[in-house]
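Tokens in:
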């Protein structure tokens, strides 16, 4: 028993001694412990595409502050990087298959010790289904989603999208289907981004429903449905268009290019009627024809008219459209119109008004006013021309006078020589070369060109002017050659018979069967210059109405002019 107590006491002393050694820092030395500076980036893991992943590094035995630097291979954005924070975050990229990324962390402590570690992050795809979208244009003047009967509508699915698409195109298939209402799909192919339908014509309004299923590149699908209201045949109003706004002068034609149509055959006939508001009254050729014209009223100041095309179909549906017309007073004329009142199409030339080919010469200007009998004239003349006959003394003659020597153009103020057929000074068959000592373009011309013929000594323009002035034609002594513009102003392009001039006021111009009837102007031509001298002069052909430059020695007719505005 005593021996047992002794042994127990010895054991207690040993244990106490051991405890005292531990408390005092005894045990293994620092050389026996593993105190290597190290970092642990974590274990390998996986995450779905476009998800947020938190990265955490654990450091062992650092000396002072630690700096962390995260990186990824292949590269991706890690936030934060290169800071003293032990954690960071990243957002995984889009993936179409499992993709491995190596995530690494490098650490450095205050003592300059470095360590690194990495793990593998496997990014797995997670497909977000696409979104199907159906769009259709709104029909004018109807509620959204409501359409007339018998019209074509395009259902557009091209704006369908896939928010996580990684390839192009994002949507690989479209599939349309009608799920309600009378059959409206007219296309044999319902697998396109858009679908054209024709709304049915029925006695009652109905609802059409269509579905669109789209599939993305990863095989996910989405379906959307859209419903539309279709009016009955009797509820479908006609479509009416009054045409374009216009601005015209008094007496010119207003093109009323109206149209009234319906998508429902039973709505015909459609009755139309033109009406107007404003402070002047246009003369409408046919108030019940949608496609017609009106003569603009005579106004003293700028006047605005509103013209309305009213339409009523066989169901009693009424609709109106309008256009605005600004009418201005016809300006005081200082030049002549062309004489052209015919209007052209692609294949014809006729006197009928052509709304489908607007803006023609035959729809505008003084010639049209004359055709509508609203053009005020001091004298008379074909189309828009306004001439007065003058006798040998320069006095006005009655319009019916058979004998007269000159003609006054009441538009331009020019007074023109009238040719004769008596073999005298002003005979229509005489021909002259061009000659002028001044204003000649550097070349005076030819005093007596070949093939010239006249009743004076030298057959040239200068001598002819001198002879006519010496004779005092119509009591005037200031006759001259006309300019290009002046001579062209009496050409009558709308005249069916030849020559192209009003023969009542300009008789004896020349033979209607002649190939050309050239008349000299006063203007040398820049074409045909030799040694800086113009060898040619402009002339006008009264057969074709065209101009051209002729050599100054050519034998050409003359019609002198004087005065003017």
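Residues out:
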């Amino acid at each position: 028993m005593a021996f047992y107590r002794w042994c127990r006491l010895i054991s207690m002393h040993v244990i106490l001694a051991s405890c005292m050694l531990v408390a005092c820092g005894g045990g293994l030395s620092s050389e026996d412990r593993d105190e290597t500076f190290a970092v642990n980036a974590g274990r390998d893991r996986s995450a779905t595409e476009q998800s947020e992943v938190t990265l955490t590094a654990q450091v062992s035995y650092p000396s002072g502050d630690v700096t962390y630097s995260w990186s990824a291979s292949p590269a991706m954005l890690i936030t934060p990087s290169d800071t003293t924070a032990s954690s960071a975050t990243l957002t995984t990229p889009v993936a179409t298959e499992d993709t491995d990324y190596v995530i690494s962390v490098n650490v450095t402590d205050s003592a300059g010790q470095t360590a690194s570690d990495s793990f593998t992050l496997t990014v797995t795809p997670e497909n977000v289904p696409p979104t199907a979208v159906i769009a259709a244009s709104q029909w004018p003047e109807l509620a959204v989603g409501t359409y007339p009967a018998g019209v074509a509508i395009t259902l557009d699915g091209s704006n369908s999208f896939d928010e996580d698409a990684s390839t192009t195109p994002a949507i690989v298939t479209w599939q349309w289907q009608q799920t309600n209402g009378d059959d409206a799909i007219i296309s044999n192919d319902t697998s396109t981004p858009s679908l054209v339908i024709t709304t049915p014509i029925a006695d009652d309004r109905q609802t059409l429903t269509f579905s669109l299923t789209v599939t993305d590149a990863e095989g996910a699908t989405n379906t959307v449905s859209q419903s539309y209201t279709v009016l009955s045949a009797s509820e479908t109003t006609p479509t009416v268009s009054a045409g374009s706004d216009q601005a015209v002068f008094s007496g010119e034609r207003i093109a009323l290019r109206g149209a009234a149509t319906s998508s429902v055959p039973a709505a015909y006939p459609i009755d139309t009627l033109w009406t107007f508001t404003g402070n002047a009254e246009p003369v409408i050729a046919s108030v019940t024809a949608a496609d017609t014209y009106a003569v603009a009223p005579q106004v003293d100041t700028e006047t605005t008219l509103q013209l309305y095309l009213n339409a009523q179909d066989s169901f009693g549906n009424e609709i109106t459209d309008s256009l605005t017309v600004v009418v201005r007073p016809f300006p005081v004329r200082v030049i002549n119109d062309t004489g052209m009142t015919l209007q052209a199409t692609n294949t014809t030339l006729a006197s009928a008004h052509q709304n489908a080919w607007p803006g023609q010469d035959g729809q505008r200007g003084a010639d049209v006013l004359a055709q509508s009998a609203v053009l005020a004239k001091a004298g008379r003349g074909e189309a828009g021309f306004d001439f007065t006959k003058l006798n040998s003394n320069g006095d006005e003659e009655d319009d019916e006078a058979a004998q007269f020597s000159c003609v006054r153009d009441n538009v331009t103020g020019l007074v023109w020589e009238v040719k004769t057929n008596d073999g005298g000074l002003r005979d229509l068959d005489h021909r002259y070369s061009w000659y002028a000592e001044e204003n000649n373009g550097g070349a005076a011309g030819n005093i007596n060109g070949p093939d010239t013929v006249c009743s004076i000594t030298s057959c040239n323009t200068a001598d002819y002017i001198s002879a006519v002035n010496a004779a005092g034609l119509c009591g005037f002594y200031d006759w001259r050659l006309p300019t290009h513009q002046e001579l062209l102003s009496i050409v009558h392009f709308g005249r069916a018979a030849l020559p192209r001039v009003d023969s009542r006021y300009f008789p004896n111009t020349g033979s209607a069967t002649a190939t050309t009837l050239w008349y000299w102007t006063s203007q040398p031509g820049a074409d045909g210059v030799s040694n800086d001298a113009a060898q040619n002069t402009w002339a006008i052909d009264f057969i074709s109405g065209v101009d051209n430059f002729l050599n100054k020695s050519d034998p050409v007719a003359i019609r002198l002019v004087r005065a003017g505005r």
